[in-house]
Design goal:
The chain is built from 6 helices and no strands. It is mainly α. Helix 1 packs antiparallel against helix 2. The longest helix has about 60 residues.
Length: about 200
């Protein structure tokens, strides 16, 4: 990020210098000699270089914005990996010590905590330019994933306590649906960001 700022500053300074040169030029007088013509040619060259520098800076900023944004998308991938790890720990604990409901409940709460990356992503309201539509889909899918994960954990807690939960019969299909939508939405965002 610091490197990007260093590149923006020279472009801004060049633009400011160009404005100062143009402002000092006065009215619509015609060039009196070769020196004035050379100055105008130099000013035009500076203007073109500045325009190119600004375009490059904007492209780098957009690329950086996309990189930062994709890093936020990746936090969900990392959370999904953590979900798998803690879910496997839960299953192992359930097989080895099914009567230890305190340890099982603690494991379920670790699983529940993995939803935070999805909640945080769903709250993003300033995606990079050009990614607004794919982001809206992914943010919605992330929110639905977090909600479904919450219900999943409630179903597990009810199960270890010998209770019924209203979503017991639907959670598997709900989970499949939301995971599929999340995966497709992530693919759409990554494709749009690579353009």
């Amino acid at each position: 990020m610091f490197k990007r700022k260093l590149r923006i500053v020279p472009a801004v300074l060049a633009a400011m210098a160009l404005t100062a040169l143009t402002a000092c030029g006065g009215g619509e007088s015609k060039p009196a000699d070769a020196t004035t013509t050379a100055a105008e040619t130099t000013t035009e060259a500076v203007k073109e270089e500045t325009t190119e520098a600004v375009k490059e800076t904007e492209a780098e900023a957009a690329s950086s914005d996309n990189s930062d944004y994709l890093a936020q998308v990746d936090t969900m991938n990392k959370a999904a990996e953590e979900f798998i790890t803690v879910s496997m720990e839960f299953m192992q604990l359930a097989q080895e010590d099914p009567e230890n409901t305190d340890a099982l409940a603690e494991s379920i709460e670790k699983t529940r905590a993995t939803k935070q990356a999805f909640v945080d992503f769903a709250a993003i309201d300033n995606p990079p330019a050009g990614l607004e539509e794919p982001h809206a889909r992914l943010a919605k899918a992330a929110g639905e994933y977090a909600d479904t994960l919450e219900v999943y954990c409630d179903v597990l807690l009810a199960s270890i306590n010998g209770e019924e939960h209203e979503a017991m019969n639907t959670i598997q299909q709900d989970w499949t649906n939301v995971a599929t939508e999340l995966s497709e939405a992530m693919g759409e965002v990554q494709e749009a960001a690579s353009k």
